[in-house]
Amino acid sequence: MNNLTWLLKREFWEHRGGFLWAPFWTGVAVLALTLLGLLAGEVRMLQVNGGGSSSAISMLFSEQTPKQIEQAAKLLNGSLLGVNALFGLVMGVVLFFYLLGALYDDRRDRSALFWKSLPVSDAGTVISKALMATVLIPLLVFALMLVTWLLLQILLSIFVLIHGGSPWALIWGQHSFLPMLAVLLADLPAHMLWALLAVGWLLLCSAAVRSKPFLWAVLIPVLFGIANGWIGLMGVPNLPVWFLWREGIARMLLGMFGLYGAWGQTLSVGDEALRSGNIFGWEAAGRGLAALYASPGLWIGALAGIAMIAGAVWFRRRNSEV
Amino acid sequence: MSAMIEAHGLRKQYRNTEALRGIDFSIEPGRIVGLIGPNGAGKTTALKAILGLTDFQGQLNVLGHDPRIGREHMMQEVSFIADVAVLPRWIRVHQVVDFVAGVHPKFDRARCESFLARTQLQKTARVRELSKGMIVQLHLALVMAIDARLLVLDEPTLGLDLLYRKQFYQNLLEDYFDEQRTIVITTHQVEEIEHILSDVMFIRDGRITLQTDMDSLGERYAEVMVAAEHDEAARALKPLSERSVFGKTVYLFDGVERQQLQALGEVRRPSLADIFVATMQGSYT
After folding, report:
1. Which of A29, A194, A274, B252 could bridge A261 with an S-S bond, Cβ 3.0-4.6 Å?
2. In terms of pTM, does the model score above 0.80?
3. Where in chain B are the domains?
4. Which residues contact residue B261 at a Cβ distance below 8 angstroms, ignoring those fewer than 6 apart?
């Protein structure tokens, strides 16, 4: 347990740039671009309406009709899902390359020999890397995403306030504010289970190959998919083509992308819950989440991922150099 | 005290070659053993087997462990430096010290820091910013602060300048080695380690061709500088090798009576390098 803490620390030391700074600067970019957009809007208004500009916007906010509030709710939810998707994308890119190199780079530069000179088990090493990609980084990115989104809402609140509107009515007091966050949180474990397949596959490639982990990791499933399609064309029994690509190959390669993985499911769960105007439908959200966690694909993929992580341990024990 | 390392019929087959052809050896505590052989003779394979980094056939016991099983327990008692520059290039000096202190129960942090204090190493420097010599200093400081019973060194000074090489072995002898510990070294710089070895093993084509302590080596091998008129007599004793120096010929003999040799000329103790060259002739042909 103590060893595992140190192994996780080591991963973080080595990949601080991808794990911390990439999502951090994503957040900064979101906020900076929003601020720029708001300022540009103000200036544009000034140019169009002369001195009466702010009063034009202010009129928009002077009284909150139910229609306006509903539109604001859509904007609010859209911003949450959008920011979430963007962070998921950044995380996916970071984790994809992290996992491909995780058990390969140190064999290539021979530093694996140093790590193996210490009383640390190969299983511990592999598990620390899997844990990082499956649990810790999604949690960290989620936290940074949340902070970014809240700061974004503060920014918008100031804008609304300047123009005499009510941030409470338009943003913080929206019915869907907390429920949408709850849905995202409830989806997080599903994302982790979902990502296990890709984490396992990429770690397995990283531990097994002697060169070019990227090519092996991508080519094997893609060629398998194409071969399966051709076999189907010849009329020989094969796996359903779409099923294989969507549930197998795409998940194997892209499962750790928040956008593609279970975070993406949030879009539909959230949409479903919000179908009846700006009132959040708990029942619909519950149904969506239940369906997500009850889908066999989620669990089968997770088990396959764990099996592949075990395979990565097996290779790690045997290969210490490329 | 029982042997630190014991091998019986140790065999390793690669796809096309047999790297180790069923070797037997045992290494006692308190020894410094040089494992010496030409390139491709099986030295590194033997060390890898000892360290549990490769599969093998036959029996191998390292400090009571089978290296293939539960390596992580064995590695509490075993340290190794494989070549220079295997420290991860991204890591900082203080990070690698923290990490080893965190995972190694036998690491003495204060000792490591006192070794580091003697060097020019900056705590915040990354390994990639250090020279090869400094990386080895760092690695040695880490390893010497581990209270291990067996230290394995595989070409530890490769690519270092003379000053660092001397300092490396001097540090090992002065600050690390004692009668409880064992050091196994492979290197091509035989002259440099000759004076610190207590035992030597020659390995050639996957077989151990010589395994002895240095004292017996001096008794078994002898070098005689022979004047031209005694050449015939010297050759009759079947020397391992001969080379000419200042118009005389130096013959290297294996297991010939001292008295017979003294009749030919001045008898000297041959250097390990000369014995190595003489016994390994024809390795690459």
Report:
1. A194
2. yes
3. 5-205, 217-279
4. B222, B224, B237, B253, B267
